[in-house]
Amino acid sequence: MTNEQLKQKGFPINLLIEGKPCLVVGGGKVALRKIEHLIASGAEVAVVSPEVCDEVGGLIEQNRVTHTCREFEEGDVKDAALVFAATNNRAVNRAVLAACRENGIICSCVDGNWAQSDFTTPAITRHGNLTLSVSTGGHACRQAKLIKNSLAKHI
């Protein structure tokens, strides 16, 4: 990571994605967290992954997300409003990011490629209409989660 990437500042926003198509490439525990936040936001969630963890499988069985059981293909991003590259393969995540850039779609890589992403996601907790989020801009995710959990106890 370059010094310039370390200096990047994020602009916090709340995306209004209810009813919009969103894609998560990957089916593991990290992908699950992104999927759950997208569902909570009312997004129409599609998952592309040859394998999924049990919890993602449960969401598929409940028809809360759609699933394409195969490796990522560039065309998968075509209709998405936003994309998460959440596989355990950095090369695949870079390919997802490249496909999104080619199609003008915002994308977040959840691995070491995060600094090349278009956005990072904060640590989030929801209590009714209140959303609490804590971000370190991708630099210290565990710290953000600890702070979020501590603040959530007071809500």
**What does the average pLDDT come to?**
88
Order of helices and strands: HEHEHEEHEEEH
Strand order of the largest sheet: 3-2-1-4-5
The beta-strand count equals 7
Termini distance? 37 Å
Radius of gyration: 15 Å
Account of the 3D structure:
With 155 residues, this protein is α/β, with parallel strands linked by helices. The protein is built from five helices and seven strands. The protein has a five-stranded parallel sheet with strand order 3-2-1-4-5, with helices on both faces. Helix 4 links the parallel strand 4 (82-85) and strand 5.
What features would you highlight for this structure?
155 residues, 7 strands, 5-stranded parallel sheet, alpha/beta, 20% strand, 5 helices
